[in-house]
Recover the amino acids of this structure.
């Protein structure tokens, strides 16, 4: 194929008395510049209004990036690629972060309002409160809360999840919460929502098979590993 291409480009055109290759060497090549040292990276855009949490989720991954709290309520645009995330408000870049493809939060402390900074400084005290409360529910609930507090969540989000867990224990009782936490295991993504679904659907009462900590009841509609062999 390449040989035929070279043969075609070297063929002299009667109308101009030269080949395409000759014209390239004489007219185009002298004007060409070196290629950029780095490969072109395709960028994506997302237009949104900055919410009260002053964070925005980018891409399909559940990772959130901070924006200066002064921008809450304003229209903003995120410009991102596989390396960086830039946030623009009124044609001004107000934040830049390294792209992360795991669940969690990237928060610049300078983006936080004073009351949230103070809230973060009391994290250890608040964490002790949640751990003490969960210990009264039971060892499995204590383990779940401990995992949430150790997770890479934005601190306010982690505390919100812990508050929700304690409220569920008040509503459904410590015994049912313990059974729900046993079925949750060490999963921290969407902890409150998962526990709420387990309790609302009564999955905490589904007998566990030996070595099984899944809250999904056995049924004919769920395929196992053998279906993909």
């Amino acid at each position: 194929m390449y040989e035929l291409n070279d043969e075609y480009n070297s063929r002299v055109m009667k109308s101009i008395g030269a080949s395409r290759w000759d014209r390239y060497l004489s007219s185009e090549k002298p004007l060409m510049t070196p290629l950029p040292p780095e490969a072109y990276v395709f960028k994506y855009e997302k237009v949104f209004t900055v919410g009260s949490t002053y964070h925005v989720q980018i891409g399909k991954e559940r990772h959130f990036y901070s924006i200066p709290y002064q921008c809450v309520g304003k229209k903003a645009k995120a410009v991102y690629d596989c390396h960086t995330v830039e946030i623009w408000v009124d044609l001004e870049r107000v934040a830049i972060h390294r792209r992360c493809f795991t669940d969690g939060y990237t928060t610049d402390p300078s983006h936080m309002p004073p009351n949230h900074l103070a809230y973060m400084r009391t994290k250890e005290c608040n964490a002790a409160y949640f751990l003490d409360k969960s210990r009264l529910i039971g060892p499995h609930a204590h383990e779940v809360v401990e995992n949430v507090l150790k997770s890479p969540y934005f601190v306010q989000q982690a505390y919100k999840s812990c508050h929700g867990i304690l409220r569920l224990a008040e509503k459904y009782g410590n015994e049912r919460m313990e059974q729900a936490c046993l079925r949750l295991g060490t999963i921290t993504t969407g902890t409150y929502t998962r526990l709420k679904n387990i309790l609302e659907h009564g999955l905490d009462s589904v007998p566990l098979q030996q070595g099984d900590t899944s809250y999904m009841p056995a049924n004919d509609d769920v395929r196992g590993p053998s279906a993909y062999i």
